[in-house]
Design brief:
By secondary structure, this protein is mainly beta. Helices cover 6% and strands 29% of the residues.
């Protein structure tokens, strides 16, 4: 009888724990930023540290994109039809989101990123062979319900957790999130929760590699505390692609606060291009704001008001971060601070004098009785 009990106990453990032999899919990131807050606090113009913390997809917006969380597929050719995503808030079960029987879930390749969002429409243009490893599905009361049940859900910073179950109800992974690890990271209302390691089968729900973050979130992309490497998971060889930066490509002199065209061309399939710039010849990088969307071949960049002789730009294929190009040489950005420069060309000359003469004795205050008619 004792051995029978032992066997039954072992079977129960195997049925309800997805972490013993490695999970088929894991939690990668979720957004805990409150609707009234910005990532890392502050306001629309700057975070509480004077920077511009933002999400790589949404940019710097209030609420950081709303209610969303992100999964990564670990097992190749995974069938996730009719799987269940259990949501906990305050560590207490809140609700379940059911994936549907749609064919999009029938054969998922390892390394696929799945985002579940409340506000962003579904996008299942998924094609790993072309370098597109991302699926986004909308779970919201008014959504179509084709891919996941149409139901509002909440994500917050109050011991929010996620549990993944397969179509038979067995736990595949989790619960994972805030409050799972004793003395683990506490997530505030201006932070996100993310995996700070390369996703793989050894990641467990209580992994110490889960941590909070406030400098950057990456909806639909590898996490960037450093940079997640998906190469071990992505066995599909994408069609080759190239990116070539055309401008600014070196030696340009650009006035801060003006608009500069970043131009590039590509070969092969490049659906989305990330544009970044550096003011220290590549030691550190910042994403342009607002973020570039899609791949049109050009972007109107509002150049920051700085003085630097070590500026370069980088364009990156978001689906394959190894495909990128940078400026061939440094270019220059300078501030133009001349009180008498009325034409904005950073030169005080007769043109500025002509502007002044044309406005001679004009008065900009219509309520001033001393203004001449």
């Amino acid at each position: 009888m004792f051995r029978v009990k032992e066997l039954l106990t072992a079977c129960l453990i195997l049925s309800f724990s997805g972490n013993i032999f490695g999970a088929d899919a894991i939690l990668n990131e979720y957004n805990a930023v409150a609707n009234t807050e910005f990532l890392n606090g502050g306001d629309a113009s700057a975070d509480e540290d004077g920077g511009r913390a933002s999400d790589s997809y949404f940019g710097r917006v209030q609420g950081n994109g709303g209610d969303w969380f992100e999964l990564v597929v670990i097992t190749d050719h995974l069938d996730m039809r009719n799987w269940k995503l259990d949501i906990f808030s305050d560590g207490i079960f809140d609700e379940t989101l059911d994936l549907t029987n749609h064919p999009i879930w029938a054969d998922l390749r390892s390394g696929t990123i799945i985002t579940v969002s409340e506000d962003l429409p579904s996008d299942i243009s998924y094609n790993p062979g072309a370098g597109d490893w991302w699926i986004n599905v909308q779970a919201e009361n008014n959504a179509n319900g084709f891919y996941i049940e149409a139901s509002n859900f909440r994500v917050n910073n109050s011991n929010w957790q996620l549990r993944i179950r397969n179509s038979g109800g067995a736990v595949v992974f989790g619960p994972a999130g805030e409050g799972v690890i004793p003395d683990g990271p506490g997530v505030s209302s201006i932070e996100i929760f993310r995996l700070e390691a390369d996703p793989n089968a050894s990641i467990t729900a209580d992994s110490v590699d889960y941590d909070d973050g406030r400098n950057l979130s990456t909806f639909g992309l590898p996490n960037r505390w450093g940079l997640q490497d998906f190469n071990q998971l992505r066995s599909v060889v994408a069609e080759p692609s190239t990116l070539t930066l055309l401008s600014p490509n070196g030696s340009e002199i650009i006035v801060g606060g003006t608009t500069c065209t970043v131009a590039w061309e590509n070969l092969g399939i490049v659906d989305n291009v990330l544009i970044e710039f550096s003011i220290d010849d590549g030691d550190t990088w910042s994403e342009v704001y607002p973020p570039n969307l899609g791949n049109t071949g050009s972007y109107k960049w509002l150049v920051p008001i700085i003085d630097s002789e070590q500026c370069i730009v980088r364009v990156v294929n978001i689906a394959d971060l190894s495909v990128y190009d940078t400026s061939d040489g440094v270019f220059f950005i300078y501030e133009c601070i001349l009180d008498g420069d009325l034409t904005g060309d950073c030169i005080i000359d007769l043109a500025d004098f002509a502007v002044m003469v044309a406005s001679w004795l004009d008065c900009g205050n219509p309520y001033d009785p001393n203004c001449s008619e």
